[in-house]
Specification:
Keywords: Oxidoreductase
Oligomer: single chain
Number of strands: 7
Strand order of the largest sheet: 3-2-1-4-5-6-7
Distance between the termini: 29 Å
CATH class of the largest domain: Alpha Beta
Order of helices and strands: EHEHEHEHEHEHHHE
CATH superfamily of the largest domain: NAD(P)-binding Rossmann-like Domain
Protein name: NAD(P)-dependent dehydrogenase, short-chain alcohol dehydrogenase family
Largest sheet: 7 strands, parallel
GO molecular function, one term: oxidoreductase activity
CATH topology of the largest domain: Rossmann fold
InterPro entries: NAD(P)-bd_dom_sf, SDR_fam
Pfam families: adh_short_C2 (PF13561)
Length: 258
């Protein structure tokens, strides 16, 4: 119970990693504030957390909007009285095209969701986090570790998010708040399963063959699952990481070494 009686706010709660982070935090003893645009998805995860014996509040939120984000912070504090960890998990992948051809409005939109929204939420929760010597965890990506086409705009956003996390670690450290990042590689969840099935159909091979070929490039020969990435978030939010700040923990099964 590494997070016993802590309150964790998770943005970008969906059926994959967002849900896993929320549920693993609850299993570690936390009460959870769930934020995303889709209310039905939030309610489903909230019910799952309640069944685990923890409290959950679902707050439909547009994190790119000042008023909506402020409502999230107010609801979290009104409901639980304190917040110990903010997990900035929400993200958007900009158009996958070469940077020389990318629409600049699409690039700006990616920065708004991936970076500025995380800054917005961190600013809103900073006073509450400082009261309890809390923490912030930014969900980044293995795109930090390569420059493959056509991920240029996405790498720009995630590299900016890493710089944001490191700068916030320096600014918030004197107030007792730790700021770290988790960078997943492949995440073996529904969206990736569907993509591998598409690739398999296109090639006329079984989906398992696509998985095996991909896993063969990874040291542990397996693609990380959502719970495995979420456990890294739990660690960084817990007292076990009380002297860890400004760091980025890669969770990729050894696909990249950093």
């Amino acid at each position: 119970m590494l997070l016993l009686d802590k309150v964790v706010v998770v943005s970008g709660v969906g059926p994959g990693l967002g849900r896993a982070i929320a549920v693993r935090c609850a299993k570690a003893g936390a009460d959870v504030v769930l934020a995303a645009r889709t209310a039905a998805r939030l309610d489903e995860v909230a019910r799952e957390i309640v069944q685990l014996g923890r409290r959950a509040v679902a707050v439909p939120t547009d994190i790119t909007d000042d008023t909506s984000a402020a409502r999230l912070a107010e609801t979290a504090l009104d409901t639980f009285g304190h917040v110990d960890t903010l997990v900035n998990n929400a993200f958007a992948i900009p158009s996958l095209t070469n940077l020389l051809d990318a629409d600049l409005d699409a690039v700006r939109a990616g920065l708004d969701t991936n970076v500025l929204a995380a800054l917005r939420l961190t600013r809103l929760f900073a006073p509450a986090l400082a009261e309890h010597r809390g923490s912030v965890v930014m969900i980044n990506s293995a795109v930090l570790r390569h420059s493959r086409r056509p991920f240029g705009a996405y790498k720009m956003a995630k590299a900016s998010l890493l710089a944001l996390a490191q700068s916030l670690a320096t600014e918030l450290g004197p107030r007792g708040v730790r700021v770290n990042s988790v960078a997943p590689g492949y995440i073996w969840a529904e969206s990736l399963r569907q993509y591998f099935a598409y690739l398999a159909k296109k090639r006329g091979v079984p989906p398992q063959q696509v998985y095996d070929e991909t896993a063969a490039t990874i040291d542990l020969r397996a693609l990380p699952e959502p719970d495995e990435v979420a456990d890294a978030v739990v660690f960084l939010a817990s007292g076990l990481a009380r002297a860890v700040t400004g760091q980025c923990l890669d969770v990729n099964g050894g696909e990249y070494h950093h």
